[in-house]
Specification:
Length: 123
């Protein structure tokens, strides 16, 4: 069982930056497909950025070049660095994990989820 807790959300103006953190209850640096998923009001959940156990990240087209996902080598924290934020990035952002050492797609079948952290970007 993996417990995930997000932090770092908030309200920023367009063009601003935020760093989201996801603290895990155990070691998640390897052995897990990890990711950030967001959900805006009235919309379906959208995979934002997963990162495989072997370290390869992927990004939704909507965030490429602006967001960076990375893992703390100490093993228990996942991050999402968000730059050049746009109003359309406004959503609840969730940290998620799936025990997997293989391919880690945007549509990963995550089975561990955090409670989410709200990101609001104003124009």
């Amino acid at each position: 069982q993996v417990h995930l807790e997000e932090s770092g959300g908030g309200s920023v103006q367009a063009g601003g930056s935020l760093r989201l953190s996801c603290a895990a209850s155990g070691y998640i640096y390897s052995g897990y497909c990890l990711g950030w998923v967001r959900q805006a009001p009235g919309k379906e959940r959208e995979g934002v950025a997963p990162i495989a156990s072997y370290g390869i990240p992927r990004y939704a087209d909507s965030v490429k070049g602006r967001f960076t996902i990375f893992k703390d080598p100490a093993g228990s924290t996942l991050y999402l660095e968000m730059n050049s934020l746009k109003p359309e990035d406004t959503a609840m952002y969730f940290c998620a994990a799936e025990k997997s050492i293989g391919y880690c797609p945007l549509s990963a079948n995550f089975n561990y989820w955090g409670q989410g952290t709200q990101v609001t970007v104003s124009s």
